[in-house]
Each structure stands twice: as structure tokens, then as C-alpha cells.
């Protein structure tokens, strides 16, 4: 069974404006509301690709109820912990001359809420895949992901992690099955700027030396790089197309990688290609990627 954890789910309010002016009233010419948060996006895309998963994490208040209702509407099983204080966040995605994101704070998560999540995770075992993705609310300890992985250590759960900086670096000692930083996040860990696929390879390998099994580095329109636990280095340019909404492209790539891995009986090259095409299919669509959209790109790459 596949599980995803989103500590801080969101309603993504996606708007388009001809031009964004600070300090003025701005009016939008397009708007859309999608359930969001990285783990939820992974669950939705997995479902679109034909793989069931259960979405876990924390929700609160009316926005939390709406997130769950919309996520269930995409066919995903939800088993969130409902927390008492605060509300699930609304994340603004403003598309004007540039793309600007304003991500909210999220509700208060107490130690009892964390215990409730642990009880759900304690049921996982050999053969299960767990995706832990996104930020954790600032009032929580910065080692949350590390604590989860420490708790699951030795149980045979394959864990995928998509997070930034310390949240990511601190879990490497637990040998995550796959991690997916983007090139900017990877560069930030080592204090360098990485713009070309070839430049990424040595730094991806450094994360392997620190413990990661497989490292998938997404590079938006530049494609992606993959370094496998069996020593393969694979690079791909991004499929060609018109970008409509790149929010969730990275999460889609994680979902595509897992789907490709399961469907090919563990062939990493296939998993990587499926990851790249699923990321791009989401970027080329107003919503997240569907199976036919991914298959179209697979045929073209
Ligand atoms: N402009 C683009 N053109 C083609 N493919 C794209 C584009 N942007 C993203 N993709 C595809 O999606 C993958 C993931 O994108 P990206 O590197 O932007 O992830 P990310 O930074 O984690 O994004 P997010 O946090 O919004 O989910 C890329 O490797 C590529 O395959
Ligand atoms: O604030 P975080 O948790 O880092 O990112 C949250 C978020 O930007 O990530 C998803 C896209 O990857 C969106 O659905 C969501 O709004």
C-alpha cells in the first residue's frame, strides 16, 4: 500500500493577472481552487495513474474540510488527523509577469496530534511505500521527518522524501528509498548554484554518500537528473510543450517515478522516464497530470 503524509495541506488559489502591481487593487482574469500540499498532490497523481494511496497528515476547520472533500473527489482515500486550533492554509499562486507564491501558515499541531499520526504510521510494514513531502508548520520541531523515519526504521517501508534543507539532509542517515530535491534546493544545501544537468551529478552523489539510496533532481524546463543506488546516472531533457500551471510538477514527478517503478518491477530507467513525463504533463495542464497526458509525452520523449 502507498501512503502520503502532508503536514500542512492547503487550498491552492491559483489566479492569473495581466500584471501584478504592489500597493494597488489587482483584478484577476482567471481563478481556480485546487486541494494542495505536496503529499496530497502525489496521492492525486498516483490515483490518476491507476495506483491507490491513502493521504495522511493534519487538517483543520472549514478549509481543512474542503481540502479533504476535494481530495476525496479525486478518488483518493483520506485519513487525516483533524486538529482543533487554527485553520488549514490557503496558498496563493499568482501568475502575472512572474510567478509569485504566498503560502499560508497552517493550524496549530499539538503533541497529541502528532501521536495520532504516529498511530496511523505504526501500522505500516514491509512492502509499503511512504511519501513524506512538503514543509512542516514552523511551530513544529525541525526534525519531524527524522523522527518519523527513526520510528519506522527496520520495518521494510520504502520512504520517499521531498523536502528542503535540514528537513531533507537530516533524514539521509535513515537511507530513504528516493529523495527529490530540485536543482535550486540541491544547490542551497551545498552553497552552490546548479543550472546545468551535468553540474548536478556530483552533488546528487554527495547526498547518496550521506545515505540516500536514489536521488532524483528535478530542473523544471531543463528536465531532470537521476542517480540510482545501482550506480546508474541518467539525464533527460524536459518534454516540449506549453506550460499552463507548474504548481505540483515536482510532486507529479515523484508520483510518476513511484508508478513507473511499480509497473516495471523496479526498473529505475523506466521509473525515471515516467517521473519526467508525469512532471511535464502536470506543467502542461491546468490541473494535475492524467494517465493519457503522461502516455502522450512518454511516446514523444
Ligand atoms: N517548464 C517546464 N517545461 C517542461 N517540463 C517541466 C517544466 N516545469 C516542470 N517540468 C517537469 O516537471 C518536473 C518537476 O518540475 P520542477 O523542477 O519545477 O519541480 P519542483 O521545483 O519540485 O516544483 P513544485 O514545487 O512546484 O512541485 C521537471 O523535472 C520537468 O520534468
Ligand atoms: O509550503 P510547502 O509545503 O513547501 O509547499 C506547499 C505547496 O506550494 O506545494 C505544492 C506544490 O508542490 C502546492 O500544492 C502547495 O501550495
TrEMBL record:
<keyword id="KW-0067">ATP-binding</keyword>
<keyword id="KW-0808">Transferase</keyword>
<comment type="function">
    <text>Catalyzes the ATP-dependent phosphorylation of fructose-l-phosphate to fructose-l,6-bisphosphate.</text>
</comment>
<dbReference type="GO" id="GO:0005829">
    <property type="term" value="C:cytosol"/>
</dbReference>
<keyword id="KW-0418">Kinase</keyword>
<keyword id="KW-0547">Nucleotide-binding</keyword>
<dbReference type="GO" id="GO:0008662">
    <property type="term" value="F:1-phosphofructokinase activity"/>
</dbReference>
<feature type="domain" description="Carbohydrate kinase PfkB">
    <location>
        <begin position="8"/>
        <end position="286"/>
    </location>
</feature>
<protein>
    <recommendedName>
        <fullName>1-phosphofructokinase</fullName>
        <ecNumber>2.7.1.56</ecNumber>
    </recommendedName>
</protein>
<dbReference type="GO" id="GO:0044281">
    <property type="term" value="P:small molecule metabolic process"/>
</dbReference>
<dbReference type="GO" id="GO:0005524">
    <property type="term" value="F:ATP binding"/>
</dbReference>
<dbReference type="InterPro" id="IPR011611">
    <property type="entry name" value="PfkB_dom"/>
</dbReference>
<dbReference type="InterPro" id="IPR017583">
    <property type="entry name" value="Tagatose/fructose_Pkinase"/>
</dbReference>
<comment type="similarity">
    <text>Belongs to the carbohydrate kinase PfkB family.</text>
</comment>
<dbReference type="InterPro" id="IPR029056">
    <property type="entry name" value="Ribokinase-like"/>
</dbReference>
<dbReference type="GO" id="GO:0016052">
    <property type="term" value="P:carbohydrate catabolic process"/>
</dbReference>
<dbReference type="InterPro" id="IPR002173">
    <property type="entry name" value="Carboh/pur_kinase_PfkB_CS"/>
</dbReference>
<dbReference type="InterPro" id="IPR022463">
    <property type="entry name" value="1-PFruKinase"/>
</dbReference>
<dbReference type="Pfam" id="PF00294">
    <property type="entry name" value="PfkB"/>
</dbReference>
